[in-house]
Amino acid sequence: METEAPAEPTGTILVVLSDASSPLERKDGDVVHEETATFVAELAKPLEQLLDAGYEVTFASPSGRKPSLSPLSNSLLSHLLAYYARKPTLSQLQKQRAESALASPRSFASVTDEEVDNFEGVFVPGGKTPMMELGEDAELGRLLWGFHNLGKPTAALYHGVYALLSTLHASEYSGFAYPGYRITTFSNPDEKSNAPNSGPLISNMEDALKAAGATLVSEKDQREMGEITHDRELVTAGNFTGAKTLAEEFLEMLTGGY
């Protein structure tokens, strides 16, 4: 029986990760000693869909350190190994590239504006740690402004939506890159229900995005849990249950479906 030829890469996606892990310090000063980091459930499914479609991925984080992975989810490396075990037609070299890229992400500062021109799009998964650092990272803000100015597909999931606020801190630009955009994230009541005995991480997501000029579409405004919001080149989801749908929409956008 003939085997199916491996999918040809159709471009490269920049995947934004966080370097932060534990402990977490909330806005009210309460320190939460919980191990938390990139939540694999919010990264693995979109990553699998991107690889299935033939895209290469480049990982990047503030300092380029190997990311911490949330103990609430399985090892991403294990997931990648299982993924490639199910995809025997993909080359060993392609497998090694993905594993190597995850273990040694690029730093944001090392990604040049010229390289942004060559990426097809950018994806920011969640986990609580993006709210510890990504929203204030000037280098990430520079990169997101680059994708925005070129109209390239940009996807952000759950806490990863906070990274959009980094555009306020990019020294080469002025203001928020997405004023008036409809963005889905969890609401202030949702955030409070997730941490009833302490304050928010850094700031309330809803308040911060509204103050920047975004038009918030909270989960409570949508018909079903896991719905997404697509506005121009930006697609967002306010809950990890939207990971699959967000990835599907992102892939449509990458092929010109917006």
From TrEMBL:
Uppermost EC category: lyase
Record InterPro entries: Class_I_gatase-like (IPR029062), Prot/Nucl_acid_deglycase (IPR050325), ThiJ-like (IPR032633)
Coiled-coil annotated residue ranges, if any: none
EC number, UniProt record: 4.2.1.130
Catalytic function, reaction form: methylglyoxal + H2O = (R)-lactate + H(+)
Secretion signal, residue range per the UniProt entry: none
One GO term of the biological process aspect: methylglyoxal catabolic process to D-lactate via S-lactoyl-glutathione
Taxonomy, superkingdom: Eukaryota
Pfam families: ThiJ_like (PF17124)
GO molecular function, a single term: glyoxalase III activity
GO cellular component, as recorded: cytoplasm
PANTHER family registered for this protein in UniProt: DJ-1_PFPI DOMAIN-CONTAINING PROTEIN, PROTEIN/NUCLEIC ACID DEGLYCASE DJ-1-RELATED
Descriptive protein name: D-lactate dehydratase
